[in-house]
Amino acid sequence: MGRRLQTRRGPSEGRVVARLTASYLAVFAVVIAALSVLAFVLVDRNYRDVLDPVLATPEGRSVFARFEGQAIAAILALDGVLLIVVGLSSYALARAAVRPLLDARRREERFAADAAHELRTPLSVIASVAQAARDGDRHDASLATIARQALEAGQLVGDLLTLARNVDARSLAREPVDLGALANKAFGEVRATRAGITFDGDFGSAIVDGDERRLLQLTRNLFENASRHARTRVVARVEAVGGDARIVVEDDGPGVAPELEGRLFERFSKGMDSPGSGLGLAICRWVARSHGGEIAHDGGSRFIARLPLAKFEAG
Predict the structure, then answer these.
(1) DSSP per-residue string spanning 248-303
(2) Which one is predicted more confidently, 210 or 171?
(3) Using an 8 Å Cβ cutoff, are 10 and 105 in contact?
(4) SS3 helix, strand, coil % of the chain, rounded to 5?
(5) What's the CATH number of domain 170-314, 1.10.10.10, 3.90.226.10, 3.30.1050.10, 3.30.565.10?
(6) Which of 7, 114, 142, 199 is the most exposed place for a label (fewest CB within 10 A)?
(7) Which segments within 141-276 are labelled E, that is strand?
(8) What tens digit of pLDDT does each residue of 258-301 get?
(9) pLDDT, tens only, 6-65
(10) How far apart are CA 183 and CA 57, in angstroms?
(11) Distance from the Cα of residue 17 to its chain's centroid
């Protein structure tokens, strides 16, 4: 696959937070300094008006000068305490403000790196096959390989764009969908492409309020994942349990490797010898969550996706 694209790292979170904290604190320091000067001037002028007869004597002026010095020291002490409190508050505010931005930046960099990493192989194949076919006689086979690789690259881009979107139910084209009928359709499609594997399906009716295209993508990815790892058999069913529609898929393969257990649903998470792009289960989780549901690994080679039944169905 080649090495993963190395992206330029931006400033660390600590440096960004420090800069933002310093900016908040500088603004507050200017404001409090201006207010302190204004308060001192007003208080000083008021006392001078009241003590004007006393200030006519040297002793009075000396005492008032000491009073002014004490007042300035008190104001500076109070300003120092306020700056410490505001500094701590600014630090907390800066962390809260910066973290979502840095997370978004990291997601953007990761998406770019993942896309470049995964697209490099099919595009390299297309280029090499086209180069070989230019002077050869096997044009039909070469063009078929180019077309297949181009379609795979296009599908990969589509999957990456799906995962780059926020999980937002409002972006779905919702309508009542029979998840059982949809799963049965996807099951037949996958079965037609996998020779030598027995497919057993039991798909009961379960009406959900969802996007039919995305739900078909969810079921197809689950069944394709199972068929790629199965030795001889894939078993799947759809059932309504309580207020949920459940898709249960299991195969007789070796099961999930222990090192993959904690990151099964992350992008490009797959074993070294595993076929596919490693996006199938990540897409499944995206679709399930966008419908208010969830998907989980239930041990071995068993996966369960849960989606809320449509209200009239649940009732």
Answers:
(1) EEEESS----GGGGGGTTSTT---TT--S-S-HHHHHHHHHHHTT-EEEE-STTEE
(2) 210
(3) yes
(4) 65, 15, 25
(5) 3.30.565.10
(6) 7
(7) 175-178, 198-203, 207-210, 233-241, 244-251
(8) 777 777 777 656 554 555 556 778 888 888 998 999 999 988 89
(9) 333 445 667 777 888 888 888 888 888 888 888 888 877 887 777 777 777 787 778 778
(10) 100
(11) 21
In this structure, the chain runs to a length of 315
Lowest mean pLDDT among 8-12, 123-127, 226-230, 292-296: 8-12
Domain ranges for the chain, please list them: 1-164, 170-314
**Position 311 confidence tier, pLDDT thresholds 50, 70, 90:** confident
What's the pTM? Answer: 0.53
| Residue 76: Cβ within 10 Å count | 11
82 burial (CB, 10 Å; 0-12 / 13-18 / 19+) is: middle
The answer to whether residues 153 and 123 touch, using CB atoms and an 8 Å cutoff, is yes
CA gap 308, 292 in Å, rounded:
7
In the block, residue with structure tokens 């897409």: 283
First-last CA distance in the chain: 50
- Token digits for 299? 């041990």
Backbone dihedral angles phi then psi of residue 232, each to the nearest 5 degrees: -135, -15
All residues at 6 or more sequence positions from 100 whose CB lies less than 8 Å from its CB, including other chains? none
